[in-house]
Amino acid sequence: MVKAKLRRDAMAILRAALGAVEAGNAVRTAWRSAASAIKLKDYDRVFLIAAGKAAVEMAAAVEELLGKNLSGGIVVTKHGHATRKLARCDVHQAGHPVPDEAGLGAVRKIEKLLRELNARDLLIVALSGGASALLSAPVPEITLRDKQRATELLLRAGANIRELNAVRKHLSTLKGGRFAALAYPATILTLVLSDVIGDPLDVIASGPTAPDPTTFADALAVLRQFDLLERVPARVRAYLQNGKPETPKNGDVIFTNVHNTLVGSNRQALDAARRKGVELGYRTLALAATLEGEARDLGRMHGAIVREIAETGNPIKAPACLLSGGEPTVTVRGAGKGGRAQELALGAAMALEGVPNCLVLSVGTDGSDGPTDAAGAWIDGRAIAVGRSRGVEVSEHLSRNDAYGFLDAIGCLVKTGPTGTNVMDLTICLAR
Length: 432
Prior knowledge:
This protein is an alpha/beta fold.
């Protein structure tokens, strides 16, 4: 349906963006400056703990860099993202975005290792998107099912990552700096691949090795904001209302030997995409790496801008490449199947209806958009008409959050498989 030239160019731009933030490459590039704060000869043992959708790739790079100096490690990644074997680390696969028993079992092994560390040990921590769900052991006062239910309610309500993590940090044994507390007095070097707007270290992966500026009161305020305080399990509500013990704050002695380093972000992916767009002959404009809001509304916005480019040459003339990054949210109203990138694409389709020679490609950079096998989707001005010819309507599918069903019917899903990175979402708009 979408013209082949536009499809090829959009995928070339996407590959350039993903290559720039591939987790292993990000670790290798950042290692020299990140490791400058420490000297391996000062430690008796070196361990690695990696968590997130790109954990295996990050761990493989650390193994390559340290060789026999690495004493061992534990890696936790999403089911299906263990794409290679590791020589010195045990790999566990667990549930995301809702935590599961496999993740709980992996965390118990991590907690045991952390408690055994001493001042002569160095711990390297590699974090990427998804680590919050994967490092999800509940505090003793609640059950895993309690935490699963609270997480599900917040996700369905459209809570953003800051709001979600303010709650999760106060229900977890490792989040919000509690990981660093267990590892103290060992030295910690944390390598962070950001999947959060603005790259705040206390929010990425729920900040296991960073001071937590949020409080129990903040967590309760989030639940009230989404009218969930009376809907979360009673044990969750009681624990948050009790309000202690609080998560570690800035200035706590446990952070004395902690070094947190950002190794990759959405902005780096956008920069690489912009360069590739220029190379392919497009006038290229990167809007922002900080877009958030309802996915379908952001889709309409992108579609409207592309329509404006096609019809008036503003804000840039064709051939044009418009780029953005960020983390949209989806307020779940129906029981359909999809993800935020797919829902953004449907929003764009509504704004682009009837406009020729244009394309909008929206993907999750980790290769999995929501609980589906698609990374995202591409769309053009003919999408709605093609859908009608095949018996599917955009408005009906949006009403039940079934972007996948519509996009599958018209052949516009993009399936990359695990990409080895996770820096939120990318949207690539082309007009010729």
